[in-house]
C-alpha cells in the first residue's frame, strides 16, 4: 500500500541526511552485528537495507507500510555503528526515518500524512505508551492495580488465560516483564541534597528519570549513596521530569525537545559540576540534545514549540501554573529560546536552545563514566558472587562506555566477573521495543538468557534497569534463580559492607550518615 508519493526531499536537513546515508559503502560488516538481521536474515531488516530505504525516500520513493515496518523493527541498539568500518552515523538515519513515519506533518519529510501502514491498534498502543511512560505520576497511578494483581497472584492467572494477548500484544508483554512488587518511594520524597561523606570532591546533579523513578527507586537510592560515599554532594532536583529519551528514540523529536527543555532548565538552576545518569538510554539521549535542537531549529514553526510539562506541580499535565497549554512559567520567553534560569558555569545567560543544550550535554556523565574519572576513595568490602556483566546497548554502542563499568566492578573484592558470550548483542529491551515488538524482543531476551545460563553466574549486572528487567523476566519464566542488579546496586553493596548481594537486594539495614539522610526523607529505603 502506498502511503505517499512526492518529489525528492530538499533542504538543508535532507542534504545532511543524504550525506550521512552516502557514507555507507554497503560492505556488509553490519549484518552479523544486527540483531534483527540475525533473527530473520532479511536484507531490509539490516542497517544496510534500512539505509537503502532512507536513500530511496530521500529521492522521492513512496513510503509504504512495508518500509515503515522495517524502520519499526529496528531496535536502535547501534551495534552496527560499533561494527561499521566507515563510521556511518546510523543513529541519525534511523531517527530521521522514524520521525518521517511517526510525525510527518511536523517535519520536512517525504510524506504528508500519517502512514496508513500502521494499524489502528498499533497507533493506539503507541499513543497510550507515550501518554503514560514519560510521566511518573501517571505511571505510578497505573502501578497500583498492577501491584494488587501481583500480590494476589492474579497476574499469573490472567497471563495463563491468554486474555492480554487477545486484547493487545503490548499488554501481554507489559504484564510479563513488569517488575516484581516492591515498596516504591512516594512521589517527590527523595532529598534534594545528599551530602558528601568526608571531603567534598564534586557537586553533581542526579537524574531520577520517569520509568526509573517509579519502577527502580532502589537504583536511584544506591546511586546517591555511592556518589556521596565517593565524596560528592548529590543534588536531586525535585521536579526534573522525563529526559525525552523514549520519545527521541521513537521519532517523536518535538515531544522529546519539550521534555529536554525542562531538564535543561532544571539542571541549569542546580549549578552542578556534572549531571550523573544511571540509565544508559537517558544518558545517550541527553548527550544528543545539541543535535536535537539544531535539527528542530531548521524545521518550520520551531519558534512556537511547546514545552512538555506532564506532572508539573503547578497544574495538569501540559499546562503551566498560569494555565497556558504547553508552556513553562516563562511563557513566550521559552518559545523564543530564552529563559531567566541561571546559566550553567561558563554559559551565556539566555542563549539559544542549541547553545544551552550543548552546555548541558557536555556535563552529562554515565555513573560508571563519572566514577572512573573521579577515582575511588570509598573502601570496598567483599561481595562473594559470580556475576555476568551485560553491556547495555546505549552505553556500550551509543556512548562507547565498556571498560569503565568492568573496571569498577573489578575493584570489588570477591566478585568474580565473567563475560557473556556475544555480549554486545541487544537483549531486546530497547526502550519500549519489548512492548511494540514483543515477539522479536522475547526471542532476543531468550538468547541473552541462554548466554547468562552458559556462564553459571548467579547474578547478572547491567548499567540499564530496562535490560536487567528484560533478562530477569526471561530467566524467571524458565524458573532459573539468577538475580539481576544495576552496577550502582553492586557498588553500593560493596561500599556498605553487605555480606551478600541477595541480602542487599532484600534489605538495607545500615545506619551510615547517607543512609540516615535517605531514610529520613524516603519512605521504604
How are the secondary structure elements laid out?
Layout: E1 2-4, H1 12-22, H2 35-40, H3 47-58, E2 63-64, H4 65-73, H5 79-83, H6 90-102, H7 120-132, H8 136-152, H9 154-161, H10 163-167, H11 169-177, E3 193-194, E4 202-206, H12 211-215, H13 217-229, E5 232-235, H14 245-248, H15 253-270, E6 274-277, H16 280-286, H17 289-297, H18 332-335, H19 353-361, E7 364-366, H20 367-374, E8 385-390, H21 393-396, H22 403-410, E9 415-419, H23 433-436, H24 438-455, E10 459-462, H25 465-477, E11 483-486, H26 487-496, H27 501-506, H28 513-521
Helix pairs in contact: 1-3, 3-6, 13-26, 15-17, 15-19, 17-19, 20-22, 24-25
Structural features, described:
The chain has 28 helices and 11 strands. By secondary structure, it is of the alpha/beta class. The N and C termini lie far apart (54 Å).
How many β strands by DSSP? Answer: 11
Query: How far apart, in Å, are the first and last alpha carbons?
Result: 54 Å
Please state roughly what percent of the residues sit in beta strands, choosing from under 5%, 5-15%, 15-25%, 25-35%, 35-45% or over 45%.
5-15%
Assign an overall shape. Answer: globular
Looking across the biggest beta sheet, what order are the strands in? 3-5-4-6-7
Amino acid at each position: 500500500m502506498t502511503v505517499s508519493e512526492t518529489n525528492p526531499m530538499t533542504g538543508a536537513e535532507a542534504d545532511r541526511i543524504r550525506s550521512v546515508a552516502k557514507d555507507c559503502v554497503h560492505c556488509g560488516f553490519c549484518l552479523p552485528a544486527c540483531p534483527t538481521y540475525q533473527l530473520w536474515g532479511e536484507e531490509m531488516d539490516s542497517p544496510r537495507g534500512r539505509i537503502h530505504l532512507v536513500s530511496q525516500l530521500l529521492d522521492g520513493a513512496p513510503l509504504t507500510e512495508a518500509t515503515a515496518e522495517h524502520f519499526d523493527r529496528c531496535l536502535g541498539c547501534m551495534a552496527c555503528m560499533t561494527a561499521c568500518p566507515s563510521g556511518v552515523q546510523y543513529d541519525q538515519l534511523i531517527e530521521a526515518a522514524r520521525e518521517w513515519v511517526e510525525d510527518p506533518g511536523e517535519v520536512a519529510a517525504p510524506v504528508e500524512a500519517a502512514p496508513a501502514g500502521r494499524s489502528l491498534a498499533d497507533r493506539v498502543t503507541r499513543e497510550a505508551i507515550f501518554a503514560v511512560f514519560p510521566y511518573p505520576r501517571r505511571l505510578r497511578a497505573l502501578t497500583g492495580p498492577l501491584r494488587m494483581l501481583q500480590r494476589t497472584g492474579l497476574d499469573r492467572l490472567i497471563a495463563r488465560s491468554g486474555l492480554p494477548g487477545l486484547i493487545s500484544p503490548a499488554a501481554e508483554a507489559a504484564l510479563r516483564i513488569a517488575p516484581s512488587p516492591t515498596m516504591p518511594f512516594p512521589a517527590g520524597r527523595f532529598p534534594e541534597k545528599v551530602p558528601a561523606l568526608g571531603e567534598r570532591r564534586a557537586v553533581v546533579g542526579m537524574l531520577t528519570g520517569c520509568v526509573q523513578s517509579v519502577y527502580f527507586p532502589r537504583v536511584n537510592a544506591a546511586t546517591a549513596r555511592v556518589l556521596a560515599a565517593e565524596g560528592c554532594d548529590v543534588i536531586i532536583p525535585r521536579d526534573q521530569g522525563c529526559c525525552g529519551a523514549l520519545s527521541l528514540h521513537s521519532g517523536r523529536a518535538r515531544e522529546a525537545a519539550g521534555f529536554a527543555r525542562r531538564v535543561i532548565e532544571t539542571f541549569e538552576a542546580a549549578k552542578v559540576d556534572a549531571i550523573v545518569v544511571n540509565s544508559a538510554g537517558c544518558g545517550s539521549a541527553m548527550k544528543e540534545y545539541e543535535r536535537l535542537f539544531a535539527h528542530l531549529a531548521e524545521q518550520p514553526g520551531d519558534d512556537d514549540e511547546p514545552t512538555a510539562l506532564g506532572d508539573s506541580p503547578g497544574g495538569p499535565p501540559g499546562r503551566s501554573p498560569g494555565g497556558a497549554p504547553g508552556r513553562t512559567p516563562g511563557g513566550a520567553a521559552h518559545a523564543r529560546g530564552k529563559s531567566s534560569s541561571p546559566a550553567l558555569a561558563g554559559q551565556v545567560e539566555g542563549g539559544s536552545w542549541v547553545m544551552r543544550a550543548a552546555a548541558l550535554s557536555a556535563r552529562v556523565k554515565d555513573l560508571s563514566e563519572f566514577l572512573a574519572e573521579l577515582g575511588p576513595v570509598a573502601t570496598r568490602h567483599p561481595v562473594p558472587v559470580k556475576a555476568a556483566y551485560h553491556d547495555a546497548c546505549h552505553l556500550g554502542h551509543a556512548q562507547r562506555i565498556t571498560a569503565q563499568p568492568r573496571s569498577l566492578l573489578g575493584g570489588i573484592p570477591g566478585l568474580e566477573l565473567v563475560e557473556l558470550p556475544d555480549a554486545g548483542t541487544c537483549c531486546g529491551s530497547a526502550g519500549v521495543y519489548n512492548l511494540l515488538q514483543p515477539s522479536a524482543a522475547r526471542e532476543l531476551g531468550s538468547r541473552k538468557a541462554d548466554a547468562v545460563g552458559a556462564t553459571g553466574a548467579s547474578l547478572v549486572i547491567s548499567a540499564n534497569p530496562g535490560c536487567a528487567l528484560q533478562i530477569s523476566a526471561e530467566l524467571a519464566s524458565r524458573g532459573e534463580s539468577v538475580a539481576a542488579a544495576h552496577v550502582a546496586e553492586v557498588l553500593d553493596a560493596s561500599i556498605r559492607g553487605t555480606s551478600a548481594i541477595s541480602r542487599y537486594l532484600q534489605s538495607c539495614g545500615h545506619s551510615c550518615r547517607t543512609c540516615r539522610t535517605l531514610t529520613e526523607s524516603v519512605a521504604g529505603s
